[in-house]
Amino acid sequence: MTRVAVVILNYNGKHFLEQFLSQTCTQSKGCEVIVADNQSTDDSVAYLKKHHPEVRLILNQSNGGYSVGYNEALAQINAEYFVLLNSDIEVSENWILPIVDYMDAHPGVAAAQPKILDFNNKGKFEYAGAAGGYIDHLGYPFCKGRLFQTLEEDKGQYDDVYPIFWATGACLIVRSEVYNAVGQLDEDFFAHMEEIDLCWRIWNAGHTVVHYGLSHVYHVGGGTLDKSNPKKTYLNFRNGLTLIFKNYSRTELIFKMPVRLMLDWIAMFKFGLFDSPSHGLAVWRAHFDFFIRDIRLNIKKRRNTLKVVRIRNKKEIYKGSVVLDYFLKKKKYFSELNFDC
């Protein structure tokens, strides 16, 4: 069994492989580097075979998105730790083994992430992960170092190790045994928030997720779906509803789902009236698919998830509303949030 498998999921990312793969191999001593290709059409496979024969190549049978792609690839890998690494990430020297050593010394830690900085502005945190992920009581995700579009400068304020609610899928280190035990990534998410759902189930099963701020990587971001793409809006809103429906208790859903729906509809009308009608339509489609097309499937998933809940109240869930704090109370930084509220 390999101790650490660094697995890069690729779809038409030849330019990122050309830019970052050599450094990933060089800086990942003691790890097996693997590229899982999701049916690319841009000569990624030919490039890998010619320029990186030392890298194991897994050819997935279809492009099922992030979740299906990783589930299919990881099922073929025998390793103690999986590292799910985006193709658009520049790693730093000695970026991974200190995290794995920490997890070895702390058996209760099942998943982790390093500090995620912006490749194009290396003094700032990057949107997808920053210094560790959280959600508020309505299921809206945010990060240390990033609240919505406000990105903090990295001044060493998060250079330590602490529990977080979710670790970013851009660079996620997870014990393979736990990954398989909690049900892997939800393949119906396709992309976006699937790592939050996975980490929620990891917490539910009695394990811990941490941010290891003594290690860092640089993320380009937006390599799969740009924020201007309505499909990204659709996935974020649909998957956000699925996330809380699967994981909250019945009592929590009764009180929190109506508020969440109201805020989603406010966002839909804002998109439609002031920003982009296509994004407003994407929100409507997300709600239609969640409540009409997928409701039976989601009920089944919810029943399966609740069977393994061991820890219900988690201090990493923010009891306030990050939406109200950010947009109405003008709290732009994580340090301004009151986790004791």
Structure overview:
There is one protein chain. The radius of gyration is 19 Å and the shape is globular. The model has no long low-confidence stretch (mean pLDDT 94). The chain starts with a strand and ends in a 14-residue tail after the last helix. The longest helix is centred in the last third of the chain and has 25 residues, at 250-274. It has helices at 14-26, 44-51, 65-74, 97-105, 176-181, 194-204, 230-247, 250-274, 277-293, 295-306, 322-327, and strands spanning 2-10, 32-37, 56-59, 79-86, 89-91, 109-118, 121-125, 133-136, 141-143, 146-147, 150-151, 161-163, 171-175, 208-219, 317-318. Helix 7 (230-247) runs antiparallel to helix 8, helix 7 (230-247) runs parallel beside helix 9 (277-293) and helix 8 (250-274) runs antiparallel to helix 9. With 341 residues, it is an alpha/beta fold. The protein contains 11 helices and 15 strands. Strands 1, 2, 3, 4, 5, 6, 7, 12, 13 and 14 form a 10-stranded mixed β-sheet that branches. It folds into 2 domains: 2-219, Alpha-Beta Complex (Spore Coat Polysaccharide Biosynthesis Protein SpsA, Chain A), CATH 3.90.550.10; 230-308, no CATH class. A hairpin with a 2-residue loop joins strand 6 (109-118) and strand 7.
Query: What structural class is derived from the secondary structure elements?
Result: alpha/beta
Task: Report low-confidence residues grouped into runs of 5 or more.
Answer: none
Q: What coarse outline follows from CA principal-axis ratios?
A: globular
The total count of helices amounts to: 11
CATH topology assignment of the largest domain: Spore Coat Polysaccharide Biosynthesis Protein SpsA, Chain A
Oligomeric status? single chain
What is the CATH architecture descriptor of the largest domain? Alpha-Beta Complex
Helix content: 25-40%
Distance between the termini: 46 Å
Task: Please state the average pLDDT score.
Answer: 94
Can you summarize the main beta sheet?
Answer: 10 strands, mixed
Number of domain modules: 2
